[in-house]
Amino acid sequence: MPLVPEFTALWPTTLMRHALPGAEAANPVLAELIEGMDAAQHDMTADYLAGDLFDHPHPALGWLKSCLDRAVLDYARHAGIDYDLEWRLQAWPNLNRFGDYHNLHNHPHSWLSGTYYVQMPGGTAREGGRSDRDPNAISFFDPRPQANMLAIKGDPQVDPEHRLLPRPGEVLIWPAFLHHAVHVNLSQEPRISISFNVVLRWKDTYLP
Q1: pLDDT by residue (tens digit) across 7-43?
Q2: DSSP state of 135
Q3: Among 57, 172, 176, 177, whose CB has the most other CB atoms within 10 angstroms?
Q4: End-to-end CA distance of the chain
C-alpha cells in the first residue's frame, strides 16, 4: 500500500456556470420582453413574489425553462444524486439601472437558486472612485461562520468571498442557502437577468 496522502473535500459548496445554447438569438427577445414588463409594473425587480415568470406563455421563456431544467439535472448528477428528483422552477425578472444593486441575501425554502444573464453592461459611466469596485459582478460568501479567521493567502478553503462577472447567455446555479450580493450598476445601460429558485416537490425518499 503506497504511503500517499488521501484528501477528502468535506461539505463542498458547488457553483455551476454554464453558457446556454441558443442564448445569442434568445437574449434580445428576452430583453425586450422584460423591459416591457418593467414599464408596466411598478418596482418589478423588488417584487419577486408577485408571480412566476415561467407562467408567461412566451416561447423564449419556454426555451429558457427547458434549458434550466436540464441544468438542474446536470447539477444534481454532478452532486452525486442518482435518484429521481421532482422540482418546479419559480422565476422572476430583474432590471437594474444606474445605481441599482442587490444587498446580501439568500433564498429560503428552496434547494437551489440561480440566475440567467440576458444583458450585462459593458463599462461604467464614471471614472474615479474606489479601485476595488466591480460593477455588475456577483459575490458569493463562505457559509461557514468565522471560517476565514485563520485565512492565509492562496488557500481557497478560507477565502471568504468568490466574485465573478457573468457573461450574457450564462446561467449560474448554487445552493439556495449561500449568501450572495450583486454589485452596483454604474452604466447607463440596464443589467437584465432572470433569477429563479428550484423548489423540490417533497418526497420522504429525499431524507438522508
Answers
A1: 898 888 999 999 999 999 999 999 999 999 999 888 7
A2: T
A3: 172
A4: 33
pTM: 0.92
Instruction: Give domain status of residue 158, yes or no.
Output: yes
Number of compact structural domains in the chain: 1
Which residue from 82, 116, 103, 107 is spatially nearest to 194, judged by alpha carbons? 116
| SS3 category, 192 | strand
Handedness of CA 205, 197, 114, 69 (dihedral sign): positive
- List residues bridging with 90 in a β-sheet: 197
Residue 107's pLDDT band (boundaries 50, 70, 90)? very high
In which residue are the cell numbers 416561447 written? 59
Question: Residue 5: inside a domain, yes or no?
Answer: no
Q: Where are the beta strands (DSSP E) in the chain?
A: 16-19, 87-96, 102-105, 112-119, 138-141, 161-164, 170-175, 180-182, 191-200
Place 123 in a pLDDT band, splitting at 50, 70 and 90: low
* Range(s) of the domain holding residue 142: 16-204
